[in-house]
Amino acid sequence: MNPLPKASRPGAWPRGAALAAVLLALALLLPQPARSATGVLRGLVVLAQFPDVDHAVDREFVRQRFAVQLDAYVREMSAGAARLEVDVTPWLTLPRPVGDYRISPRNLEVDRGRVSRLIDDALSAMPPEFDPGRYDFVAVMLGATMPEYGMVGLCGYPGMLGWSRRDAFVTANGKVVRGGVAIFTSQAHLGTLFHDVAHILGGVRNGRRVLPCLYDHDLQARPGPVREVFAAAIVNMGYWDPMSCHFYKRELPPPGVSSWTRLRLGWLDEAKVATIAPGQTSEILLGPLEDPEAAVRAVRIPLTPTSFLLVENRQPIGFDRFLPGSGVLILRADDTVSECRHGKAPVKLVNADPARPRLEGAAFGAGAGDDFADADSGTKIQILEKIGGAYRLRISRP
Question: What is the reported pTM?
């Protein structure tokens, strides 16, 4: 779970403030390469335990979660364009009890000073052979549960601590976090691990996170049981992307990511995205998004210079076996929106069946009444037939 509006970071350097400030100023002068979420992505997992919390989290279990399971997920989502190489530290004991770091489970209420303190203490305790500046992402895995810490997972940067260049994190003993850093408790689901690591892999562009959370932060901040409140906040993409839901059901692996998320991460080959221009009518055989061999894996329909429709086909193959359904999804994207707040989102699903809760019936099929028309642009999408796992579509634009 993650971010908030950009803000200053009170209590960012609980000790060694002067040294940290100087190092941060120097870090900001260094040229920063463009972030890429492809190729070999190096991760560092910092194992951090509290002096007053007993746990039985095994180091090998954590290594398997990141180096094997998360790597397999990233490889499939990127069609082999990205893979992870992960190092894991020994267990390090933080200098303070868990209560000094505990945070609210609601993003908009999180004490950022405590987030900063935990990251600083964990990274400052690392042996010198682990340099966070050499890694594409850093994850702090806690020897604690969600009730003990307060949140199951979060992204510190780019996330709770902001996402502009001046928010780069430098520890009190001078360790610079180049990519970003996330925090997880031992109960974090694989979908949660991906969700917060993906924020880091996407990086920051023009003062915005490339890959924001796709659930509504204002709804997630409402009072009530945490899981029920969160389920009511997935109003934009439902269970069709772990950037929205983390997972469909706790006992299942996460579903695959949407075409919008793949495009943001550079994980969907543009040669497999058909673009329909104004005045054009086309028939397209749309293959499953999860099939890297499909000739067309998504359709883009530009509406304005900053908004467009995406059409994708989700079938029960690969990680998409863990979705609430299958069929054709239509996504409305608006690049002028950076975060899911105040009822707006950078991408939202068109809901084929509003009678089903939490967008579980969002997919269109090849049945009667499953055609779509966009009233503003006049664009029409007709689902003509299903051929194997693919759909033949007719898309017309005025």
Answer: 0.90
